[in-house]
Amino acid sequence: MLRHYQIVNNKIEETADEKSPILMSVNPDEKEKRLLIDTYCLDEHTLNSALDPDEQARLECEPNHIAIVLKRPKNYSGEDQLLFKATTVGVFFFGEFLIIVLSEDTNLFEGKPFSKVSSPREVLLKLIYRSIFHFLEHLKIINLLSDEVEQKINRAMENRFLINLFTLQKSLVYYQNAINSNGVLIEKVRHNSARIGFTPEESELLEDIVIENNQCYRQAEVYSNILASLMDARASIVSNNLNVLMKTLNIITISIMVPTLVVSIFSMNVKIPMAHHPFAFLGIMGLSAVAMSAFLVFWKYRKW
To answer: Half-sphere exposure of 114 toward its Cβ, with a 13 Å CA cutoff?
Structure first.
């Protein structure tokens, strides 16, 4: 699917004009790929890399354009089961013309960074800027989910909560790799800033992007280290909860067995006292209750 965008009053708006400065291709089929390759001389390998979610972020300088593969968070859905992954976006910069290639349909131009743009160069920078804040938003969500799962682990013994925790830790590893890859890309963009033709204001924005990406990576690293360091402790909590449950079940089982023993003695097929007494049943039940109470007092006294 091909979409055209233009910059009107410092805002990005979709248009039907094929000569617009921004062209977006969403999950292109073979026909659209051939169009991009033949018309705009895009490298086929780089184009396929922009659609590969496992591809690392990078910058390549072609004769007539600059190709950028950028990492960004993948849109999360309930089917992912707490697994957050990163995907890629291809950006091909031709000076005053920009081609954006992505594998999933999403609104790239949302949020405050795109409230005011003036050129395709600034759009390129704000795509990177928006990706960093998208990672930060997902990191906050992962942190909230990990706190919620931790509270459930403190009360439950099910392995699924530990598996959820492992999944969140795996997501943080994916994000660390993606953010670090973006950091390498941003450094390459900064080294080629003269070739791209950034204005002083855009160069200042690029410096802010470097700082924000470093902070984003450190935040992901902190969250990952916390989860990794506390994983053994949380596994021990599940094991301790299981031991407490087994102890409770043992108390209940033995408490039932003691009065059962008393009743069994009185129910033997031999001559026993109180056989014809009208309150024999109540007496036996009373002795059973006394035996069970004595056992519970003894258990509490020994602090088992």
So the answer is: 20
- Cα 19 from Cα 169, distance rounded (Å): 45
> Between residues 156 and 24, which one has the greater pLDDT?
24
For the stretch 260-276, pLDDT in tens is 766 676 666 656 666 66
Both tokens of residue 119? 């050129």
- Annotation: CATH topology of 2-241: Beta Polymerase; domain 2 (3.30.460)
Chain-centre distance for alpha carbon 293: 52
pLDDT at residue 216 tops 90: yes
**Token pair recorded at residue 87:** 């995907």
List, for residues 53-70, the tens digit of each pLDDT value: 888 898 988 888 899 999
Q: What is the pLDDT of residues 40-50, one digit of tens each?
A: 888 888 888 88
φ, ψ at 20 (rounded to 5°): -70, 160
Q: Report the distance separating Cα 270 and Cα 264, nearest Å.
A: 12
User: Which tokens belong to 227?
Assistant: 């989860």
Sheet holding 98-102, edge to edge: 11-15, 2-8, 22-26, 98-102, 86-93, 66-73, 58-61
Compare 114 and 21 and report the one with higher pLDDT.
21
Delimit the domains of the chain by residue range. Answer: 2-241, 242-302
Q: Measure the CA–CA gap between 87 and 51, rounded to whole angstroms.
A: 8
Alpha-carbon span 236 to 219, nearest angstrom: 27
Buried/exposed code over 205-216 (b: 16+ C-beta within 10 A; e: otherwise)? bbeebeebbeeb
Please determine, for residue 122, whether its predicted confidence score (pLDDT) is greater than 80: yes
